[in-house]
Amino acid sequence: MHIGISRPPTPPHPTPDIDAALVAKRAEEMGFESIFYGEHPIRPVDQPGHSVHAHGVPFFQDTLVALARISAATSKIRFGGGVFLIPEHNPVQFAKELASVDFYSGGRLLVGAGVGWSKVECELLGGNWDRRWAQTREIVQVMKKLWSQETVTHDGEFYQIPPVQLFPQPASKPWPPVLIGAKAGEKTFAKVVDYGDGWLPAFVTREDVANGPAIIAAGRRRMDELAQAAGRDPATLQITAIIRGPQIDGDIGPGQRVDRRLVARYAMAGCDRVLISLPTLLNEADIDGALGRIAEAVL
């Protein structure tokens, strides 16, 4: 199983955010397999926060730019959007950008696909809030066509595309894996089997982290059943789990720590990759200490 890290999800954050290239370079040197960055282009001011963003969305650096910087600063580590807010992107432009990053990195991109929680943000950036998952499905379908076919047309609910071509195409074949980022549930697993290449759940509370392996195991069984019924090979569907890492002392609950034993439980449950979320990095001097503590605990 692969072990990576993800960007700290909660405030406080420095403004501007710590350069992703610096974090990824050290993560690669320490032996982490991957690094994921979430996406929120703006902070809605008049909309209440949600979940891990209860106190407001941090001022994230642009995720695509962050991944491009990671690609240029590293040679081995894989990287992904965890998650990209798919309805906020034009499918043709987004397919071009992702294909370019994947091509020039030698096939190191992973595409987490989600919809976010903010109606304000979604609609401001072109999403259809009431139909956000249907729009996501169509965007992913369009991108996969553009990534794998020489000439593409499309006539859908949200997008009509005349015959076009897109180059470069991704180095990953047939395309960079698209991981559906949503909570466990029948609708999520149906999405994964319908148009995804895997599942990207996040466990952000102490209870979630402790119960995550059981949730993963049940999800793995159900995804396998749905894949077989749909004629898909279950082995082609991967699971990458983000788990809330140590924020202060490493504890996530009574008698439970983020360590090798916990990671092993996720692996036994059916995870292909576990991402440990970093604690808040307030300056560049924090990078080595934060990464070093996680590396010592889980690698």
User: What is the general shape?
Assistant: globular
Helix count, DSSP H or I runs of 4 or more residues: 9
Counting structural domains, the number is 1
Provide the residue-averaged pLDDT: 91
Instruction: Specify the CATH homologous superfamily.
Output: Luciferase-like domain
Measured between the Cα atoms of the first and last residue, the distance is: 11 Å
- The helical percent reads 25-40%
SSE class = alpha/beta
- Rg, please? 18 Å
What is the spatial order of strands in the main beta sheet?
1-2-3-4-7-8-10-13
Model regions low in confidence, pLDDT < 50 over at least 5 residues: 248-255
**Number of E strands:** 13
Residue share in β-strands = 15-25%
Order of helices and strands: EHEHEHEHHEEEHEEHEEEHEH
CATH topology: TIM Barrel
CATH architecture: Alpha-Beta Barrel
Summarize the structure.
This protein has 299 residues and is of the alpha/beta class. It has helices at residues 20-30, 63-73, 91-105, 119-124, 132-148, 186-195, 206-230, 260-269, 286-298; strands at 2-6, 34-37, 78-85, 109-114, 152-155, 160-164, 178-180, 198-199, 202-203, 238-243, 251-253, 256-257, 273-277. The strands form 3 sheets. Strands 1-2-3-4-7-8-10-13 form an 8-stranded parallel barrel, surrounded by 7 helices. A two-stranded antiparallel ribbon has the order 5-6.
In words, what does this structure look like?
It is a single chain. The chain has 299 residues and is an alpha/beta fold. The protein has a single domain, classed as Luciferase-like domain (TIM Barrel), CATH 3.20.20. Helix content is 39%, strand content 18%. The chain has helices at residues 20-30, 63-73, 91-105, 119-124, 132-148, 186-195, 206-230, 260-269, 286-298; strands at 2-6, 34-37, 78-85, 109-114, 152-155, 160-164, 178-180, 198-199, 202-203, 238-243, 251-253, 256-257, 273-277. Strand 1 (2-6), helix 1 and strand 2 (34-37) form a beta-alpha-beta unit. The N and C termini lie close together (11 Å).
